[in-house]
Structures are given as structure tokens and as C-alpha cells.
């Protein structure tokens, strides 16, 4: 995901809590696996991510688990799309925009 270079791991959790109050019981954990500033990425990678100057790419692991039942694939995809929309700050590509709109 493309995010402002000043954001920290704690900020991602805050954004998720603010944007997904109805789904928080299904988000078990959020972990930043790696970060790369825009200047370390190729032009092609920056374009795919919608990364702008002054942003960084963040690879995250989001573990979803409902405490009472198994989530369907559609439910998990909806929560993932909402997490992406809450955190991603780059330019949305055509496909990402469609997926995000379908999830809401």
C-alpha cells in the first residue's frame, strides 16, 4: 500500500479502528512486514502501487478471525477492501477503485 512516509505502525491501527468499527471484532492483528520509500522502488512498481513522491510502500499482514464463526470468503474480502481503503493513500488504479467500491 502507498502511504505518507511519516505514518507509523500505530497510525495504521488507528486508521483501521476509525474506519471499521463494525468489523473490529474480526480483525485479530495488523503487522507491518516491510516498508520501502518511493525512491527505492522502480518507476513500474511506483505506478502499480499508485505511489506518489514523499510516500512509502508498506507491506502488511492483516489476520482476520471472527471469534464466533468462520468468515466467508466474501466477508473476508469485504474487510480486506475496507482496510485497504482506510490505509492506502496513493492514487487508486482502476481495478483497486472497482474492488473498493464493490466492498462498500
Gross geometry = elongated
Mean pLDDT: 88
CATH superfamily: Ferrodoxin-fold anticodon-binding domain
Strand content: 15-25%
End-to-end Cα distance: 19 Å
Strand pairing plus helix content: what structural class? alpha+beta
Cα gyration radius (Å)? 14 Å
Counting H and I runs of at least 4 residues, what is the number of helices? 4
Give the oligomeric state.
Answer: single chain
Question: What count of domains describes the coordinates?
Answer: 1
Largest sheet: 3 strands, antiparallel
Unreliable spans: 94-101
CATH class: Alpha Beta
The total beta strand count reads: 3
Listing every helix as H and every strand as E from the N terminus to the C terminus, the arrangement reads EHEHEHH
Q: Using the coordinates shown, work out and report the CATH topology.
A: Alpha-Beta Plaits
Q: Which strand order do you get reading across the main beta sheet?
A: 1-3-2
Would you spell out the secondary-structure blueprint of this structure?
Elements: E1 2-4, H1 9-19, E2 27-37, H2 43-49, E3 55-64, H3 73-87, H4 94-103
Antiparallel strand pairs: 1-3, 2-3
Helix pairs in contact: 1-3, 3-4
List keywords for this structure.
4 helices, 3 strands, elongated, alpha+beta, 3-stranded antiparallel β-sheet, 104 residues, Alpha-Beta Plaits
Amino acid at each position: 500500500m502507498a502511504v505518507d512516509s511519516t505514518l507509523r505502525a500505530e497510525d495504521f491501527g488507528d486508521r483501521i479502528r476509525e474506519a471499521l468499527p463494525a468489523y473490529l471484532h474480526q480483525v485479530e492483528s495488523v503487522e507491518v512486514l516491510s516498508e520501502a520509500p518511493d525512491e527505492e522502488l522502480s518507476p513500474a512498481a511506483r505506478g502499480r502501487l499508485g505511489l506518489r513522491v514523499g510516500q512509502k510502500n508498506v507491506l502488511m499482514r492483516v489476520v482476520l478471525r471472527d471469534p464466533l464463526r468462520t468468515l466467508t470468503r466474501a466477508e473476508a474480502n469485504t474487510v480486506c477492501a475496507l482496510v485497504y481503503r482506510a490505509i492506502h493513500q496513493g492514487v487508486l488504479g482502476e481495478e483497486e477503485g472497482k474492488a473498493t467500491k464493490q466492498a462498500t
